[in-house]
Amino acid sequence: MRLLMLATLGGGIGAGIRYLTQVAMVRALGPAFPWWTFAINVSGSFAMGVIATMVMLRFDGSPELRAFLATGILGGFTTFSAFSLDAANLMSKHENGAAAFYILGSVGLSIAGLYAGVALAKAIWS
């Protein structure tokens, strides 16, 4: 229960940071290209690299820090950071086929899932 509460608290913080980042970037750069999502995904992945390494090397893999920082804050900010960490872990274990499947499958099936969800919602509510 304690880890769940830490992840939940961190998730709220991360979602708030994501929202503020999006608003600021739309105001600064306009809505023509989703720079906010691009920046959030890249910066979140960078932060995941720093945090995952710091938690493992400096804090002995603390489950509390992992739940609050990685799952919570970065999960609320962007799940792309977790995707990047999972892909890097597969590649570091030389599981290149699994990594390619994970990367291509996640991106391709996520986009296909979005279109399927749009089609379903339109069929129900149009």
Quick gist of this model?
The chain has 126 residues and is mainly alpha-helical. It has helices at 2-29, 35-58, 63-77, 80-92, 96-125.
List the SSEs and their pairings:
Elements lengths: L1 H28 L5 H24 L4 H15 L2 H13 L3 H30 L1
How big is the Rg? 17 Å
Shape: globular
**Beta-strand residue percentage:** under 5%
Residues in helices, as a percent range: over 70%
Number of helices: 5
**Uncertain stretches of 5 or more adjacent residues:** none
Coarse structural class: mainly alpha
Number of separate domains: 2
Query: How would you state the average pLDDT, rounded?
Result: 94
Biggest sheet layout: none
- Name the helix and strand elements from N-terminus to C-terminus, one letter apiece: HHHHH
